[in-house]
Amino acid sequence: MTALGRGSSTSLRARVRAALAAVAGGDVGPREAARLRCVGGDITRPWLGLSPAVYGRLACEAEAVWHCAGDIALTGERDRLLRTNVRGTAQVLEFAAATAPSCRLIHMSTIAVAGGRDAGHVGEEDLTDAYGFETHYDESKYRAEVLVRAWARRHDRSAVVLRPSVVASDTELPAGAPGHPLDVFGRLLDAVAAGGGPGMPTAAVRHRDGMRLRLCVPADASINIVQDDYATEAMLRIGQDAPHPAPGVRTFHIVHPSETPMRLIVEAVENRYPGLSITCVGELPDPTPAERSIATGISGFLSYSRHTRTYGRTGTLALTGGLTDPPPVDRGYLVRALGSGTVQGGPVPDPPLVPHTTLAL
């Protein structure tokens, strides 16, 4: 297997080995390591940042192309997101066109391509910009999918598009690994809770006096969060194991069958940070500095929680027969997913029940 990624081949190999070790619970063996080839490159540059000779050799060798690279900054600048997610996809598609006709393209997308559609049922083949977009990230991933569909038509090739929801992990990530959305949320809360954000008292003061924090999100809000182990297995079965002989694009939603209520996320945050009380409100006309800091940092995450739309899974279920649905996302999982798995120097246990959070509209 060849992994193309940013940085030098040496640094890339170290990152990939660390990620594999985190998943496997230990370093991979020498036989597995020998099968891994890492090539430093840049998907935003012509020839993927490679020499023509290396580019051509990789294209001749490829039996499948998994395009997983992307910028997932939900509140990132538009130009930056378009550069990686749209221009980068265009460069990958150019590479894929140079591979053998039997080489399969698997493109990693997101349910966020549904954009500003706040209700209704989103089918796996649905793709429209009629509802606008919540963030520049949504737009960039939508435009990338448009490119994939045009590429498949133009070259009469097969492509698989995978649309995961918010993928979360409750295991400790290796140093330097990119965070999933809940982990990024947790890191922001950690920084603010440690006194790194404006208007947030220290842990000692919170324990003594308590603190109230309001989030501008509906009381009945929910968000689709899917566990990483289920998502990975489903995507491998669809992208690698299942046959896709006919030309064209097939799209699959990798989502949890049940939405996670925002109140569970609130309870998980309160359990993680003793002394903190969170209230969900419909409007926030006079935010405190701490509330403004949190809202700015997680604005993309909060925008998704305001949707009531659902996602079709017909194609996914058809190609993942025998794969058990993921268990419900509970508070214990959320507490662990919000950070590295430690709080105040110790491991995170399954939290005890807390009084029902006050939710005010």
From TrEMBL:
Residues in Thioester reductase (TE) domain copies: 31-172
Highest rank taxon of the organism: Bacteria
The species this protein was found in: Streptomyces lavendofoliae
Pfam families the record matches: NAD_binding_4
Protein name: Thioester reductase (TE) domain-containing protein
